[in-house]
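Let us practice reading a record.
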Amino acid sequence: MCFQEIKHWMSTNFLKLNEEKTELLDIGPYVSPIKSVDLGGFSITPVEKAKNLGFMFDHQMNLDAQVNAVSQICYLNQRNLSRIGSKLSHELKIQMVHSNIICFIDYCNSVYSGLTEKNFRKLQKIQNNAVRFIYGLYGKKLKESITPYLKKLHFLPVRFRIKFKLALLVFKCINNLAPDYLKSLINLREIRRRISRLDDDFFLLKIPPKSNFSRSEAAFSYCGPKIWNELPFSIRSLSSIGTFKTALKTSILT
C-alpha cells in the first residue's frame, strides 16, 4: 500500500509520520461513499476540506474553502489596520497593505484560474477595500470608482494578477527557469514546413484539445498556453525575465 511505503520511507529517514494530522480527501462532486480507511494501526475518515502548504483544498475543488479562509484573514487584518490608519503615512499604508492583505491574495493565485465569478468578486472586494484604506475613501468618497486608484498604485486587479502569474510561469518554462514537472506541461506549437515562410512566430504554444469537463480548463497545461498565445509577439519574444515582467504589467495596465 502507498501509505505504508510512505511510512516506511519516513522511518528509514529518521522521520515520524504525524497520524493526528493525516487527513483523507475524497475529491468529487458527491458525498464520499468511504466511511473510513484502515491504514495499519489507525484509521481515518474522509474530510470535506484539507490544508496543504497553507492552501485549503475542498472535496469539490471549487476552492470555496480557500477563498473563505483568505477573506477571513484579510478582513481581520483590514480591521486592525483601520484602527491605526490615521497614524500612518501614505507610503507606510501601501507597505502594510502589501504585507497584510495583498500577499494573501497572491499566495498560490495561479491555482485561481478556475474560480467562479462569486469567488472572483470576493477577492476583488478585498483589494478594493484595501485601496479605500490607503486613500481614505470613506463617507461621500465611498462610491467613487476604484479603477483610477488601482492604476495610481500600479495594482493589477485580481483577475489580471492571476493571468500575470500564469504568463510568468509559462515564460519560466520556455526559458528553462521552471521545474521539470511544469516544463513537461508546456509544448511549443509545431509549424508545418509548407507554411513556415508565412508563419514566423515560433513563440506560440500548443493548446491541448478542450475537454468535456469545464474544470479541466483551469489546468495549467490548458490555461497557461491559452493566456500565453494571447500576449503580443513583442512580449512573448523577450528573453529577460525582468523586462518581461515590466512589459507584461505595462500592457495589462494600459
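A brief commentary: The chain has a mean pLDDT of 87.
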